[in-house]
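FAQ

Q: What does a record look like?
A: Structure on top, sequence underneath. For example:
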């Protein structure tokens, strides 16, 4: 009888990727996924430690899981960054947890499950010397037309508010050859869009593929993107999350040269005040950041920006906060995430005096979010009347509809049959709602009957598919 596996994923896209890979590892052990936690023989919570709220949620979910019960012999595992940060402590607060494992150990999950089944309490939070990626099955499972590909993991930047360098460990870049092989296999399975993932993805510096032309040594993310753009079938490349310090000239120029690189970049700045940026150990100024944004828009005028902000970092004055508001006005974000500063145990900023009172944080967050949402609304509204390339992904809510993504990750609803999934089409946008854009297909790799123009032939050419 197959055993059932339920994974709940918290936090970032790297965790989403990790959960998929855990599921791959366990599939080889006879575990099939289920959507119902109570039916599962193995429940994994893949956790996030970035802010206090995210970490606390794990404990309340654990309580609920325990109360709901499950099949006899059911195992509960806590993975991810809370597991890494709290280790055996988790078993003090929740003794019914069978397995605690950090983000660098999940290639060993089969062994951990086997030991737990024998009644052993398993806690694995070391950073193993072998690289996890070399011990994972190749990710070729067909999961639609877009895929996450981890290219880099960990962080050496040590921003003073952040737990990532402690929970994910030092920066590691996968060799370029392994990444290209994986993407070729994904493309052969119908994947058209890849999201390259890393905590510091633009710091990527992986070993060049054997026999690669050009200078030996490491490849940058720009070099990697150029090679990915040559893979047949790959129509879109995205990457996240980037740091302003690593936004090199070659990467900016790749945005000019590669139509596959989407004109939408998540580039967190956190604050617009140089004093706060310094205290955060960001190692750049607000002006440095603005220069990068200007340069990106020079080479790709349709470049839209997304970002992250923290309000109420220790010592943040009204004037510092106003500097953040000014930066946001200047950049004009398509989308941004903003958070109240949350002191994380073990990080330098948690020990700083001058912590900002919660009411002040709330007030600032409200003002910032009001500004960011008005920018987001204006950005979406500006799509009306535009012609956008859309990658069709899945059936829509109504029969005969498909939903795809714009270059800016907006959901776009069009009339098209399910067979059109995976095609790149051009869509004329008619209306904009809060959650999606609506339009008509006017060209690309699939055409409604009655339309005969091939539209923008560049789309088909770059994707290697002729409509
Ligand atoms: N408090 C609040 N926000 C944080 N982030 C990271 N650490 C903290 C913290 N201690 C935010 C940053 C980062 C995003 C992933 O989470 O904005 O870019
Ligand atoms: Fe955290 Fe800074 Fe590293 Fe990003 S760059 S993961 S914010 S320490």
């Amino acid at each position: 009888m197959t055993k059932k596996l339920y994974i709940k994923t918290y936090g970032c896209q790297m965790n989403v990727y990790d959960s998929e890979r855990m599921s791959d590892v366990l599939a080889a052990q006879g575990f099939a996924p289920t959507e119902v936690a109570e039916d599962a023989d193995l429940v994994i919570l893949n956790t996030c430690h970035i802010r206090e709220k995210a970490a606390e949620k794990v404990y309340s979910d654990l309580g609920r899981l325990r109360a709901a019960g499950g099949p006899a012999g059911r195992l509960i595992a806590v993975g991810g960054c809370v597991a890494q940060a709290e280790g055996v402590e988790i078993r003090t607060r929740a003794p019914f947890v069978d397995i605690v494992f950090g983000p660098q150990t999940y290639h060993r999950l089969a062994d951990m499950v086997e030991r737990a089944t024998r009644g052993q309490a398993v806690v694995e939070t070391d950073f193993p010397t072998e690289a996890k990626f070399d011990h994972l099955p190749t990710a070729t499972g067909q999961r639609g037309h877009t895929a996450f590909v981890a290219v880099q993991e960990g962080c050496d930047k040590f921003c003073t508010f952040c737990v990532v360098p402690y929970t994910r460990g030092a920066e590691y870049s996968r060799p370029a050859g392994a990444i290209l092989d994986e993407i070729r296999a994904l493309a052969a399975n119908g994947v058209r869009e890849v999201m390259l993932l890393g905590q510091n993805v633009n710091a990527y510096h992986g070993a060049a593929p054997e026999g690669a032309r050009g200078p030996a040594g490491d490849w940058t993310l720009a070099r990697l993107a150029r090679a990915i753009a040559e893979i047949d079938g790959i129509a879109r490349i995205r990457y996240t999350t980037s740091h302003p310090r690593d936004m090199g000239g070659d990467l900016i120029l790749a945005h000019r040269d590669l139509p596959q690189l989407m004109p939408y970049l998540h580039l967190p700045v956190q604050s617009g005040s140089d004093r706060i940026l310094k205290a955060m150990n960001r190692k750049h100024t607000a002006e440095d950041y603005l220069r990068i944004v200007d340069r990106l828009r020079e080479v790709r005028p349709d470049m839209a920006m997304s970002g992250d902000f923290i309000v109420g970092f220790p010592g943040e004055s009204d004037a510092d906060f106003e500097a953040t508001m000014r930066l946001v006005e200047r950049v004009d974000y398509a989308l941004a995430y903003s958070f109240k500063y949350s002191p994380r145990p073990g990080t330098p900023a948690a020990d700083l005096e001058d912590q900002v009172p919660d009411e002040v944080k709330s007030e600032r967050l409200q003002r910032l979010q009001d500004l960011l949402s008005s920018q987001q609304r204006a950005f979406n509204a500006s799509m009306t009347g535009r012609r956008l390339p859309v990658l069709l992904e899945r059936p829509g809510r109504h029969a005969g509809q498909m939903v795809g993504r714009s270059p800016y990750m907006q959901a776009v609803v069009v009339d098209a049959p399910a067979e059109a999934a995976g095609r790149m089409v051009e869509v004329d946008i008619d209306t904009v709602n809060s959650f999606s854009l609506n339009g008509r297909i006017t060209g690309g790799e699939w055409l409604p009957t009655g339309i005969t123009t091939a539209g923008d032939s560049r789309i088909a050419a770059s994707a290697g598919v002729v409509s």
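Q: Is there anything notable about this one?
A: The CA atoms of residues 86 and 92 lie 10 Å apart.
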